[in-house]
Each structure stands twice: as structure tokens, then as C-alpha cells.
Write a structure and sequence with these properties.
eight-stranded parallel beta sheet; 2 domains; DUF4434 domain-containing protein; single chain; TIM Barrel; alpha/beta
Length: 523
């Protein structure tokens, strides 16, 4: 999955474009938002998405409504970087003619910067004169102190720049649609020499700021049913971690703050897996990583959403029978024109199964299916800026990723809504979200096993949109009517059939005439 730095640039680009477009020519006021349509007309198996908070309420409403229409009930945002380095963006912040980092009568030891899309509540300003909301250079800033008391002579400051209350808009719209929001925790400062690791010289300051931000969320959103929990933005690999792992130490420290300030609120973490030979790790390490991450929750509920790795090309989604087959063309730029077994230690299903075997109490296993391709193809839309370039995927490939997650995931979520689900190759071609809306009734099989019923041998399948119709078994080409169906978290369907060979693929056609886009292979 992509890092928070990428999302910050996307946020700046998209926020400016949408805010400009939301105003009526000749008017200084935004147009009135249309009435909300709270129907779910195309419920798909993916129910959560990473989104970019919008400073404009009507743009936020359109985005939330589009996600809700296809069955989304969860929205996740990246946490902005708690930056310990100088940021030229803050040169415009001035108070009484002085740079905001200068406070008469106080010694400023360290200045942190934080660029976000939210307006803090009045409770954030504890120290009159020192802590302020500042309008300067056409921007809104906050100056906050991390000192324990306002009377101290030495202060560490946090300068915050915001484009508006995008998070507040997101919370309000999510509440109107009956959805949950997981705002990102402030992301830790990174080491200059190892940017993939947190800089623990600033962890104490990060925790103090995190506590302030979360207390503000508690005051502003605590009574809202839309406040679902918080998201840990600093990424790590879900593998066996070293005893003194710096990212685990960060998680332990910051999650203790969450448990203290927001007792009972879930913490969402989305670690990545990497199956590439020579660079990644084998599936069995995913279970060890699950245990190490879960140990950081400080008693808070936790959801661990494993990134499936297909979008970045780090993990394939092939079946066990395809180990010796060539990697699919979209993965060749990442691992070369070789077989799956030559390129990877295993496929998504194996990593998810390893993680599912070590889920402790108080933790839920989610799966984060990456909704993009490693590189763009000619003629398709995707992300062209900033790097790395990413391409748009297809609904059928998303179906394969959901199949690979199997029956183990409590919830399927996806990175990320913009631009991958919304972009169009041309103005008159459908987006990925459009394709989901038109094809949501296609069955998706997430599990299939041999099962006897009433003394008869057969095949039981689990998944989505299975009711009625038939199951096709290949390579024999046998089409057998379903004789039993049941609902639940997954639908189940059974048909009498005895496979004659070692590998059998199952394709479902439901009672409405819709057929699964990819077969499920059993041994």
C-alpha cells in the first residue's frame, strides 16, 4: 500500500481541484448540496475504503454517497506526518509580524509541523496568547505547545496548517449515511537515514501531540456513532519482528495513548506482506507478525487488515494449482517473466491462512485488497502523479482478491478510493466503481469443500450472491443444479457432484443469471 507522503500530495491536488469546482460562478458561497440518497443499491464484498478528507462539504457528500451506494460502511484516512524537519509551507505563518515559531518571553526548543485537513476544537487551545488559531497568508494555522504547563519557560511547538475541516465534514456525512470513520493517528517522524523507521528521538513529543488530538476527537466526535476508531498510519511488514523492533516500539507507545484517551475505541492497523523471493518472507511468518502486532494494543480492541500485496506486485493471487504457471502479465514488471513459484514464496491465500491461525482474543482479522495495478497500461487511467505510477485494475481482479482472502476475514477493505475507483480512461467510459455497481450481483466463491448431505457426495461452496442457479465443474464441464442454500456471514450452496480428478474448478451461476468472473479451484 502507498505511504502517507503520497496521500498528502494527493490530498493537496484533489482538495484544490474540488474546492474550486464547488463554487457557483459569481458567488462567494458554495452551492447548496443536493438531498442525500441513503440507499445501498449495489452491495459489494468490499465494505471499507481509504479516502481523502475534503474541505468542501458537498464534495464530501458525493464521495461518501458513492461509497455507500456500493455497500461501503467504513472510511479510513491517513494520519498526517508529525514532522520534525523544517517545512517551507509554514513560512506564511506569522503572528504580530513575527514567524509563528517565535514566542516572546519563551524559549522554543523544537518546532514540529503538521499539515492536515481538519479544524480543531476550542479545547485544543489551553494557553492564552501562546496557543492560537492563526489566519495568515490566506491560510489557517494553529500554534500549539507540548509543554506540561503553560507557565514553563521552555516549549516544544507544533505548527499546524489546515485547508478546512475535511475530517469534520467526513464525520458528519458518515453519520448521515450510517457509516464509520477511522481517522489516521498522527504519523511518526521518520529517521533521515532509514525513513522506513520512526525517529524515536521524537516519540515522546508524538505521544503528547497524539493525546491532544485524540482528546479533541473525543470532545468533538465522542457522541457520534460515526467515530469508529483510529488508524495507525506508520506501516510495517507482518512478519516475525525482532525483540527491539523500532516500529513495534512505536506501536506500543502510541497505542497506549489511544487506550488511555479513547478507552474502548478500536485501533486499525494494515501491515503489508511480501512474498517476493529474496526480498520478502514465507507465509508462516505472517502468523508470527500477527501476534507481534496484536501485542501492542494495550488492551484496546484491534483490527489487523492484512494488505494482500497484489496491487504493488509483492504477492500474487493465484491458486495452488498455478504454482508452476507464468506470473500474470501485470506482475512481470515487478518480478520478471518467470513462474509463480520462481517469483514468490506463496500466494495471498497462504498468508491470510497463516495469519488466521494466530488471531488472539480482542483482535479481528480484516483483509485490505489493493485496488490498483503495479504499473499503468496504455490507454487506462490510474495515478500519474506522484510516483510511483499505478494503474487501474478491474472488477474481475478484485473478485479474485476477495476469493483469495477466503472465509477468514471479518471484513474486506481497500486502498484506495481516489483515484483508483473513480478515474475514467475517457469521459464516456466507466470507472471501477461503475463496474462494481453494474456487476455486484456476480457470485464470488471464497471457499469450496467436499461435503456429504443425506448420504450423497457433493460440493459445498461459500461466498457472495450464490442463491439459486447452478455450479459448473471443470475441466469436465458438468453443470449441476444447487439443491441447498443457506444465508449467514457468507452464503452457502451445495450441489451433488464427485470430482473425478485431483483439481476441479467451480464456477457459480446464481438464480438471477449472473456468473462468477473467476472459478474457484479445489483439490
Amino acid at each position: 500500500m502507498e505511504g502517507a507522503w503520497v496521500h498528502r500530495i494527493l490530498w493537496l491536488i484533489v482538495a484544490v481541484a474540488f474546492v474550486v469546482g464547488a463554487f457557483v460562478p459569481g458567488s462567494s458561497e458554495p452551492a447548496e448540496c443536493p438531498p442525500r440518497d441513503t440507499r445501498v443499491t449495489a452491495p459489494y464484498a468490499i465494505t471499507g475504503y481509504w479516502v481523502i478528507p475534503r474541505a468542501d462539504r458537498c464534495v464530501t457528500q458525493r464521495m461518501v454517497e458513492a461509497i455507500h451506494t456500493i455497500g461501503g460502511d467504513t472510511l479510513i484516512t491517513f494520519g498526517p506526518r508529525f514532522n520534525a524537519r523544517e517545512d517551507p509551507e509554514f513560512a506564511a505563518c506569522r503572528v504580530d509580524g513575527r514567524p509563528c515559531a517565535q514566542v516572546p518571553g519563551k524559549e522554543i526548543r523544537q518546532v514540529y509541523t503538521y499539515t492536515t485537513s481538519e479544524e480543531f476544537g476550542k479545547g485544543m487551545l489551553r494557553c492564552p496568547g501562546l496557543e492560537r488559531r492563526i489566519e495568515s497568508g490566506g491560510r489557517v494555522f494553529y500554534r500549539l505547545s507540548l509543554a506540561e504547563t503553560c507557565r514553563e519557560r521552555v516549549h516544544d511547538l507544533v505548527l499546524v496548517a489546515t485547508d478546512g475541516d475535511g475530517l469534520g465534514n467526513l464525520m458528519a456525512e458518515a453519520a448521515a449515511y450510517g457509516m464509520k470513520v477511522f481517522p489516521g493517528l498522527p504519523a511518526a517522524a521518520q529517521r533521515a537515514d532509514k525513513p522506513w523507521e520512526p525517529d524515536h528521538d521524537h516519540t515522546r513529543a508524538l505521544n503528547a501531540f497524539t493525546a491532544r488530538v485524540l482528546a479533541d476527537y473525543r470532545a468533538r466526535f465522542g457522541a457520534s456513532g460515526a467515530f469508529g476508531g483510529v488508524y495507525q498510519s506508520f506501516e510495517l511488514a507482518m512478519r516475525d519482528r525482532a525483540p527491539k523492533d523500532p516500529i513495534i516500539e512505536l506501536y506500543t507507545a502510541q497505542h497506549a495513548v489511544v487506550a488511555d484517551v479513547l478507552p474502548g475505541k478500536p485501533i486499525l492497523v494494515s501491515p503489508y506482506i511480501d512474498a517476493r523471493r529474496g526480498r520478502g518472507f514465507p507465509p508462516e511468518q505472517a502468523g508470527d507478525g500477527m501476534e507481534d502486532i496484536a501485542a501492542t494494543r494495550a488492551g484496546a480492541p484491534m483490527a489487523i487488515a492484512v494488505q494482500d500485496g497484489r496491487g504493488t506486485g509483492k504477492v500474487p493471487v493465484h491458486g495452488a494449482h498455478e504454482a508452476d504457471a507464468k506470473v500474470v502479465p501485470r506482475l512481470v514488471p515487478v518480478v520478471g517473466d518467470v513462474s509463480n513459484a520462481q517469483a514468490y514464496y506463496g500466494a495471498t491465500r497462504e498468508y491470510v491462512e497463516a495469519a488466521a491461525g494466530k488471531v488472539p482474543d480482542g483482535v479481528e482479522l480484516w483483509v485490505n485488497v489493493e485496488g490498483f495495478e503495479p504499473t499503468p497500461a496504455a490507454g487506462e487511467c490510474g495515478r500519474v502523479d506522484p510516483l510511483p505510477l499505478r494503474g487501474r485494475t478491474t472488477k474481475s481482479r478484485l473478485d479474485q482478491q476477495i476469493m483469495a482472502a477466503g472465509p477468514h476475514a471479518v471484513k474486506i477493505i481497500s486502498y484506495g478510493w481516489d483515484p483508483f475507483f473513480t478515474c475514467q480512461a475517457r469521459y464516456d467510459t466507466p470507472s471501477l466503481a461503475d463496474d462494481i455497481a453494474s456487476g455486484w450481483q456476480q457470485p464470488i466463491i471464497v471457499n469450496a469443500v467436499r461435503q456429504d448431505r443425506d448420504g450423497r457426495a457433493g460440493i459445498l461452496v461459500e461466498g457472495h450472491n450464490l442463491r439459486g442457479g447452478s455450479l459448473r465443474f471443470d475441466p469436465q464441464g458438468a453443470v449441476v443444479r444447487q439443491e441447498w442454500h443457506s444465508g449467514g456471514r457468507f452464503e452457502s450452496a451445495w450441489a451433488p457432484y464427485v470430482p473425478p480428478g485431483p483439481w476441479t474448478s467451480v464456477t457459480a451461476t446464481n438464480g438471477a443469471g449472473h456468473t462468477s468472473t473467476s472459478p474457484y479451484v479445489i483439490r
